[in-house]
Specification:
Helix content is 78%, strand content 0%. The protein is built from 18 helices and no strands.
């Protein structure tokens, strides 16, 4: 009997040791990514610059109207309401702030850039900084501050000998320096290079300078007509970007006030009241929870699939970093679907011994008011996450990393790529993540924690799983809304709708910014 007990104890100890080792292996990439995100820029900095570029586009509208006309007055009023009085000063300040943040990021990267991947990241940041500085120099030059602009061009020339710029950076600096020198020095291929390397207001400003210097009046008139149309579209996009969150946020505030008043008046009968009657009847313990989350989500997602995709890429001589935008979009969809299928398969096998499950587990009910729950949850999430995100900006000061998919969506104006990103973010991600984090994790945690504690802990794990420290706070708040909606509705369709609307709204905003800013 003692031998059997000893063997059983040894096997139990071995299982625990293996489980501990697999947990460490699975979570190490997550912890590493979170730590490395400290020195990575947020996408918020890029979003602000795209917004600034859109504002610059709109400034060209009023210049086409008669200053004494009612049209001019109306345009000026709309313009001031949306972009403020002194757009160029604000734009310069935004770019100077972004320049300072980028230099800080580069300084930190230089300290730790030892492996090839880190060196590539450093190289990308340096080139991004130089592109940013060229745009800053154009804003300065257009306002007559040629000394500051020339200092940037001179700095790029001097550092080009020992900093690995992409070829266009030095060429663009020389091109701009020539156009704004006295007398001007115009390259024979100036127009082609401008069309190739500049977009939006920056393209318009340089072409206007070139055509004026070459006295090309017909081309100048055609350019102004084209820019007037582009500026009108930019104005519409700015209005949409301002109105959609404003309207949604106001609805959310009204709903929040209603919920708080109801909670104060009705206490235990209020929607905000959460007690153990809302908990799920859980048949399994910590081991099944470990299989579903640590193995199914983290180990498969962070270890197994990267190894498989790495081996396949090596075997097929593919380098995802060098993919075209369309190929990157397909890669994103395929890799996410692979994660979804493999992780849910592990989860299914983990809970299979406990079937049949109680009826409120993983519930999809088309005939309950899931749509109203989802829509209301989305509106409530808007003001909460916006407020927390503003606080988050003060904490992280533009650092802390962001989801790389957001950057691709912001910079992409390819319809096919945007459809792929939209499918992944608005359909695949809500379906998969709500099953894992709300359907399984949150519900399982109610065995050990009060309902509100299960919502909070599952939301924190959901936020950490996105592997960017700057997103932990806002995503935790969003996760709490998702958890509350699911707990109250007992229908995964509700939280999936909130998740889908949130991701879809984010992508729509990025598309509007990217398509209008240039």
């Amino acid at each position: 009997m003692f031998d059997n007990f000893s063997k059983k104890l040894s096997w139990q100890s071995l299982k625990q040791a293996i489980a501990f080792l697999l947990t460490i292996i699975a979570l190490t990439p997550v912890v590493t990514a979170l730590i490395s995100s400290v020195n990575q820029p947020q996408i918020q900095s890029n979003i602000q610059l795209y917004q600034t570029n859109l504002n610059l586009q709109v400034t060209t509208l009023s210049s086409d109207a008669d200053p004494n006309s009612e049209e001019f007055a109306n345009l000026k009023l709309i313009q001031t309401s949306l972009i403020g009085e002194d757009t160029y000063t604000t734009a310069e300040e935004q770019y100077l702030s972004a320049q300072k943040s980028a230099k800080k990021t580069i300084t930190e990267l230089k300290k730790s850039a030892v492996n090839p991947e880190q060196k590539k990241s450093l190289e990308r940041e340096i080139n991004s900084l130089k592109d940013l500085e060229l745009k800053l120099s154009l804003i300065q030059a257009s306002q007559g501050d040629l000394d500051s602009a020339r200092q940037i061009w001179q700095d790029i020339k001097e550092k080009s000998e020992f900093e690995n710029y992409k070829p266009a950076v030095l060429g663009n600096a020389l091109l701009l320096e020539g156009l704004y020198s006295e007398p001007p020095e115009i390259a024979s291929d100036a127009e082609a290079r401008i069309e190739r390397n500049f977009q939006g207001w920056f393209r318009y400003t340089i072409l206007e300078k070139l055509y004026s210097l070459e006295n090309r009046q017909e081309d100048l008139l055609a350019l102004e007509e084209e820019q007037s149309e582009v500026a009108a579209n930019a104005l519409i996009q700015l209005i949409l970007l301002a109105l959609l969150p404003l309207i949604g946020g106001l609805i959310g505030v009204v709903l929040l006030v209603f919920l708080l008043v109801q909670w104060l008046l009705r206490k235990q009968r209020a929607l905000l009241f959460l007690d153990d009657s809302l908990a799920w009847q859980t048949k399994w313990g910590g081991e099944t929870l470990w299989w579903g989350i640590i193995i199914g989500f983290f180990f498969v997602g962070q270890i197994v699939l990267p190894v498989i995709f790495g081996v396949l890429s090596s075997f097929l001589s593919l380098n995802p970093e060098k993919f075209s935008l369309e190929a990157k979009a397909i890669y994103v969809v395929v890799s996410y679907l692979a994660l979804t299928v493999s992780s849910l398969s592990v989860l299914y096998l983990a809970i299979k011994p406990f079937r049949p499950l109680p009826p409120d587990w993983f519930r999809f009910n088309l005939f309950s008011p899931w749509f109203l729950w989802g829509l209301a949850g989305y509106f409530v999430a808007l003001p909460l996450v916006i407020i927390v995100s503003l606080l988050n900006q003060l904490i992280w000061q533009g650092q802390g990393g962001s989801n790389p998919l957001l950057t691709l969506a912001l910079e992409s104006q390819n319809t096919f790529a945007l459809l792929c990103f939209g499918f992944t973010a608005s359909l695949a991600a809500p379906f998969f993540e709500e099953i894992v984090f709300r359907g399984f994790l949150l519900a399982s945690l109610t065995r050990y924690l009060p309902v509100w504690g299960a919502i909070a802990l599952s939301s924190l794990i959901f936020a950490l799983a996105h592997q960017n420290l700057s997103e932990v706070l806002p995503l935790t708040v969003l996760g709490c809304v998702l958890g509350f909606v699911y707990t109250r509705s007992k229908n995964l369709l509700s939280s999936m709708l909130v998740h889908s609307l949130w991701n879809g709204g984010t992508l729509l905003s990025l598309f509007l910014l990217g398509s209008g800013a240039g």
